[in-house]
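User: Can you model how glutamine sits in this protein?
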Amino acid sequence: MELFEHSASELLEMLRAGTCSSEEITRSIFRRISELEPSLNAYISLSEESALETARQVDRNRAIQIDESPLAGIPIAIKDNICTKGIKTTCASRMLQNFIPPYHATVMERITNAELPVIGKLNMDEFAMGSSTETSFFAQTRNPHDLNRVPGGSSGGAAAAIASGEAIFALGSDTGGSIRQPAAYCGIVGLKPTYGTVSRYGLIAFASSLDQIGPMARTVSDCALLYQLICGKDPRDATSLSSNFHWNLPSLPSVKNLRIGIPSQFFGDGVEKEVCAAVLRGAEYYQSQGAELTEVSLPSVHHALSAYYIISSAEASSNLSRYDGVKYGYRADNPADLQDLYCRSRSEGFGQEVQRRIILGTFALSSGYYEAYYRRAQALRRKLRQEFDEAFQRCDMLLTPTAPDVAFPLGERRNDPLKMYAGDICTIPASMAGLPALSIPCGYSTEGLPIGMQLIGPTFSERLLLETAYFYEQTSGLKEIRPVFRSCGGKEGTK
Ligand code: GLN
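Assistant: Here's the modeled complex, given as structure tokens:
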């Protein structure tokens, strides 16, 4: 077995036992990248020299037994909307093609202090707007399970890299599903934490009331370890909350008497039959192990999608007004006057989808329309949150599909934004309510494509969600069919 095939937890044990070095792990990943990257395009940029330097430093410290942080020496990859000091951070946009941040995001400070070698920056939808990684200015990332399909989005680069062995784990961001949906499409685990528990300082803003950074990995434990490293209060983010999360499982958690709610709105029209069936099998598995299933109802879910696209676009139109061709970012050549400079810098620097959202958001906030759209969307958001609160009186967590479908063919929805948006229906409700939610693989379609199951919990229930997912991963037998790494893209990629 090659080093890149191991989970972070396994590699940590090997590092401790001295059977491999951090430099060897890091080199193994870069070899894998040079082999697959020409067909996958998961990364926008690589930082091999500095990653190896960090790895060697960890190895030297270990040799003289200097105390290290728990994840020291395990290489990580970072979505390209998280600011990395001295390393280009593009948001997959022409607008920020040459932007080198002069500072680290808070999560990056934690990663560097903990001495994790940083492999590189991952491809994504431009400014995290999209569900397929097709709106990236740079390249189309492909799904390692089938190279003719999308990896999901917007953290599609992260999911593809992890599923194929080009990364062990990664940091993604999730505004309306961008960690969970690509995790589902690529057959990995992804956690969107409670809003506020991970600092957004240094995360390039899309929709500030929804944006969250979170971990993506091949195993539940790896997600938990990474979440433990990045969560916690940060005075530089006014919405940041303190959270008390520790991952140290003495034994397999139990699901006896766990009350799992099944919201009917997530299993109706528009959700593929195979997906419903696989997810319900997951629920029945928990039941067979002692959990109780209860039906719950969240009627406002039907309107969550429209409300999300109003609110997120409104916030995006305001956040993205800072890219004016003056302060930083792309600037149009030879402007005739100031108006021309603004207009052409933004028209040439932003792609079509980003421009669509800016226009939609500006319209929704304009006088006369604000009450009709933005105010109503906010009211719906509050109502949805209430419905979740009521549901959590009756159950400990909810179980739903992560996406209504499996990875779709490249190009299928590129020119049909409404169809693209409709795919976010299962992930958006938890985002709108600020709740933690996790996606874990629960089966495969007849075509061999991964299906994701989503667990949504009350505020601060990350530990319960992760334990419940861990139980499933360890006991349901699904572990055996996760991607193996011999090839990539062909049927042999999945056993
Ligand atoms: N697909 C959703 C959108 O385009 C979610 C994106 C995200 O979570 N960053 O808005």
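A couple of observations from the model: The first strand starts at residue 43 and ends at 46. The pocket of glutamine is lined by residues 128-131, 154, 174-178, 206, 312, 424 (CB under 6 Å).
User: Helpful, thanks.
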